[in-house]
Amino acid sequence: KPSENMHLIVNKKILILTSLLGVVFIISGFVLGYRVFPNLVEKKVWENVILTENTEQWTNFMKIPFPFQIKVCFFNVSNPDQILQGAKPIVKEVGPYVYDLYRWRNDIEWNDDEISFYEYTSLEFNRKASGKLSDNDLVTILNLPLNALIMTVEQMFPDALETVDSVISIMFGEYDGLFITASVRKLLFSGQIICKDGGDADFAAKIICTQFKNKAKLSRPMQIVDQHIDYAYLRYKNHTHLGRFTINTGQKVRENVWNLVKYENKEYISVWNGQKSICNKIHGSIMFPPFLTKNMTFDLFAEDICRHMPLKYNDTDTVKGIQGYRFTVPKNAFNRPTKDSPDYCYCTNRSPDLNGRRSGCLGDGILDMTTCVGAPIILSFPHLLYADPNYRSSVEGLKPSEQLHSTFATVEPISGAPLQMAKRVQFNMFVRPVLDITFLENVSNSLMPVFWIEESVTLSDDKIDLLKNLLLKNLKKLTIVQWVIIGLGMAAVFVSVALILHQL
């Protein structure tokens, strides 16, 4: 029948056109999902990352809208008198004492697509987060400035040690022993008084105090007040700036956003060996860029320890319902480098090791900070995590835990938003016999932990909701649109082909 055949031909043409339209839908869905939508997302994300004045990201950059937290844990010395007779030090962690850390930037100066600024911080004691602990609590710790003075004189002017021993009580007053018992507030902020009245009570003390004051100008914990020195561990973070930073805004080359260009208007610091060495070179970034991959390594500059900290992908983690990449500082970050290693420049040969001898570089897991802070302070991870066992065994009471004591950052990979971060470092000092110093004659060799600090932040709930609503939910919607289009196309093709085959 001609009319029926014609109807079948028309139906077949419609089915073929429908199947072709379905193919177009499928192709369009894949093009949208793997080309158009990603480009739109990429463009929008970069718009919210690149630093431009009079934008929300600029406001957040100028004043971080939520506080970080500083948690301080002291190593309270349980047997100070026995240590003076040669016993192994026994310590017990006390803390954390929690402080809210506020950050803001000021004194902005533009230069093409770079900006320079001072970063300011202030600290407030958080009573609620500190629980039953109070900053009036008394703790007994190593008398760090006194021991630092002795260690420095021993290395540079050993013949003067006997003189130093005779004027210690004049210089340090009531805190003239190897250990100091004082309140947390005094140790961290109000300060331990050294060289009261400039040491005028004794000629030798005055000479040593004058030299000590010259050192104080280079040491952040030290501050010259009238004629004396105030020594406080965290005062330099309270209502003061951390130095002048110069970073790239990403306006010309977006991939360079947040890159650190200079510190204190210099491309190199003068701390480590080799004026133009990689150790002194200012590089890395101050924040994470967007579109992270698992094979990326980041160098974040930590001005308070005068060096960069590498962060490498370790795992995938979830924070408040958002999945992120967890980057950690590698276990070997403070390991003893070989002489042909590019980071051998961290070996300053300034502090003798546990055995009292200098060999260029200290052992695994610790870093000599003498050239950074102007005192023989030894940096490590908390509880000497990852350090040479000989250091840990010189003291009783350390309990290293990778979960509690490693440094990490969990970052949402598309936006580069930090979901949770924690920088954890410990400050130590070697204690060993010094024959001309009365109270050190009988002590055993040890690496004495003083305190450790965690500087951390977890993205606030309102920022988490903002990230979910503006990015993740929209990404989910785009994915749904993509697969709806692909699904409609596949359905059209499947039905059309099935009907055509049925008519054959």
TrEMBL record:
Bilayer-crossing regions:
14-34, 480-501
The molecular function terms of the Gene Ontology recorded here are:
scavenger receptor activity
Keywords of the record? Cell membrane, Disulfide bond, Glycoprotein, Membrane, Olfaction, Receptor, Sensory transduction, Transmembrane, Transmembrane helix
What lineage, starting at the top, does this entry show?
A: Eukaryota, Metazoa, Ecdysozoa, Arthropoda, Hexapoda
* Gene Ontology terms describing biological process: sensory perception of smell
Indicate where this protein resides in the cell.
Cell membrane
Name listed for the protein in its UniProt record: Sensory neuron membrane protein 2
Where is it chiefly localized? membrane
Which family, according to UniProt? Belongs to the CD36 family.
The record's annotation in InterPro entries points to:
CD36_fam
| One GO term describing the cellular component | plasma membrane
What PANTHER family does this protein's entry cite?
SCAVENGER RECEPTOR CLASS B TYPE-1 SR-B1, SENSORY NEURON MEMBRANE PROTEIN 2
Highest taxon, organism lineage: Eukaryota
